[in-house]
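User: Batch of two.

Assistant: Item 1 of 2:
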Amino acid sequence: MSAYSSLFPIFQRHRALFGLVGTALFSSPLSAADWPPASWTETTPAFHIAGPIYYVGGRELAAYLIHDEGCDVLVNVGMEDNSALVQQSIYSLGFQPNDIDTILITQAHMDHAGGAENISQASGAVVAGGAADVELMQRGGLQDYVFGDDLPFTAVSNTKALNHGDEVQCGDHTLTTIATPGHTPGGSSWRLRFPVENDGKSVMKTALLAGSVSVLSDAQLIDNEHYPQVVSDFRSTYQRFEQEQFDYFLPDHLIFIDPRNGEAPKPAWFENQEALAKILQRSKKQLEKKLAEEAG
């Protein structure tokens, strides 16, 4: 039985954490053996996506390595148990986990930031994200605006807060921060432009490393003393995402791009310009439904 099985009663109370993810990954009736879902800690071979981007995550919880000479940036880790998985994936590509300079976190929940401290301690990397999420990571997930103290993870000690528009440099590549709060108060995404060779010519491509916009049904949206601007944050995030033009979509959960045909993840999954629009449409419906329920 998983070390996380003791958290199963909490998962039952907060099943909405998973949104589409929970609906697709779990069958009823549920038991403690279902927590966490097997795919969350399942390994899958690491591979090159495009340009400086490599996939180093698991079968469901995504992690991406941005590699350039003398610099490595890791985007998300997964749960604490996933830190070894991610490190082994990096090794398998011929890179060194100790070369990671920065760990970027799209959302400060245990399924994405849970393993950040492990890799930060091993590599000396700074863990960066939106200011409110950095504070949440420093608290180890405690005082979350939805989950309270129910879903803790190892607190992160070496951190850096990023604002909208801040740039993270990795060799010749620049990741530009896009503030995408709502799912978490400091939710963040990153835009990365890079050249690829096409018929002997260098063509610029754009990747969007996207954070979640799921509206948790356990969240209080109206008069939330812990996060009073939650609704306006969601709406500003929708607007920012709708302005993005990209060639590669890199979500923090692979289920958003998984064709569910039993195949392992592969580069073609990420050449997806339609998934984000569907995700935003679903989130907007979730938001309006939740607001109507709270308003009575």
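Item 2 of 2:
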Amino acid sequence: MRLLHKGNVMALFSWAILFLFSCKSEAPKVADILAEEYGLEQREAEALVAETEAWMKAEAARASDGATAQEPSRPQAQKTSGQPSGRLEIPLYQSSRGGQVIAHTGFTLSYDADFKTPQWVGWVLTAESARGTCPRYDKFQPDPAVRGAKAYTKDYTRSGYDRGHIAPAGDMKWNAQAMRESFYMSNICPQNQNLNRGDWKDLEELEREWALQWGTLAIVAGPIYGSANPPRIGNNRVAVPDGFFKVILVQERRGPKAYAFVFRNEAGSRPLRSYQRTVDEVEALLGMDFFAALPDDVENRIEAEKPAL
């Protein structure tokens, strides 16, 4: 479902990549546009451009030398036929609360400095990354890229809530740095203990099964707040979500399918289908536009459907 938004971040990233390919000297101009259009600081915009250029160089090197043994590159969502360039795991979202976009090794997020939780986290899960073997890091720490107020692990101590991953550590086993960064507090929300270790975990495990079966998934997840004044925990007043969402684009043999889920932040042990929604329903709830880089006819069709689990 297409939502009204200022500009098109997918097209902008594609445009930036084309500039980097065609004229390296134009990269600062691309950074200027990213900074102006999306409210990034100049150094953040330049870092995004530099990261894109580094990925392209790495891919070119692998292609030219027959993919010599290196640490895996960041997973990328595959394009469907007729799909314009774009990051399928990055939603279109214009929040009245603002938000700092941060790109890490294995995921990208938009951070709410007031709530001290992510607004959304997007990542790509492939069969290769699902087979990763990096050990779990298990050391929560503040995100050094966050500007201003941060969450700290002690904010959760004796709060009654788990430090719940949005992008799961289990999806980051393909790269040691990605694993470490998944424990940044910018990727964490106060989550009901039973939910975190039960139904939410069940969905994470299903994602990895799908990646092994189908090859590539684009995933976006995050908290849901029903109030501008949610309950808070810790000295840094971390906001407690009312629930969580997750949308998943799966590239199956017969074409793409989109799965969407909404969980209340409470205990429960129910079949995953009881949490399932259409992507259109989640977009209406959140004011986000998912998978906008897909052709309109494909996007509109799959986001209105609720595929069988």
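The CA atoms of residues 12 and 18 lie 10 Å apart.
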